[in-house]
Each structure stands twice: as structure tokens, then as C-alpha cells.
Amino acid sequence: MNRLLAGVMWVVLGAAHAAYAVPARPLYEPPAPQKSTPSVDLRGSTWQGKAFAVDVTFTFETDGSVTYHRGGKGFKGAKAGIAKGSWSLTGDNLYFDINNKTSEHRGIVAGNVIRGESSNRSGMRGTFHLERVAP
Prior knowledge:
The chain is mostly beta strands. The chain has one helix and nine strands, in the order H-E-E-E-E-E-E-E-E-E. The protein has a domain at 45-132: Lipocalin, CATH 2.40.128.490.
């Protein structure tokens, strides 16, 4: 009986010791992600260049929309004269689309130049190169 009581006490004390033991090292907590701030403000700016080997003009509006002209003429219908889309800039990574994602464009903004890749619903893929138009 004494051996049984001693064994039970040993288990209880061991469990209590383990419950209050100090961890070998502190728990890892990853650092908070840094917020990426754009190096260039695109709001209200106009850019010209080539996309799909065609002369294009994009204006990145302050409300997050983008206006697109191709070859000096509008893309969407003769009456409208322009095509609309949306854009977002995270750090120097630019994304914009035209006509509800009929075409999508992803690029890097470096000062007064934007370079990237384009694709459209018909399966075309290409590159684009744009330069800022002086205000």
C-alpha cells in the first residue's frame, strides 16, 4: 500500500511540475507585415506607349477607374470614344483591367515608366511599355 501511495504521489508531483514548467524558449510571433506604400502617385496621371504593339493612352483616374484610348481613337464603340476599367497600385505593382476584364495588365512602376504584361479574353498575350505624359 505504501508503494502504491508513493507511486501516486510521484505521478501527481511530476504532473504538477510539468504543468508549471517554464518553456524552453518563448513562442514565436512573426513580425507584423510592412505596409507597402507606392513610390509614385498615379491618381489623375496620363500615360502613353505601346500595348499589344498598338499605340495606347491610359489615364488613371482618382476614383480608381482607368480610361483607355487606342491608336488615338476610343476602343469601345464610336459613340463612347473611350473604354473604362479599374486599377490598383500596391507598392510599385500595378494592376489594371479594361472593359470588365476583357483585357488585364500587370506591371511595375519605375519613376515615369511602367512596364509589364498584358492578356485578354481571346488568349492574346503581350507586353506593354508606358511613359508618363507631362501634366
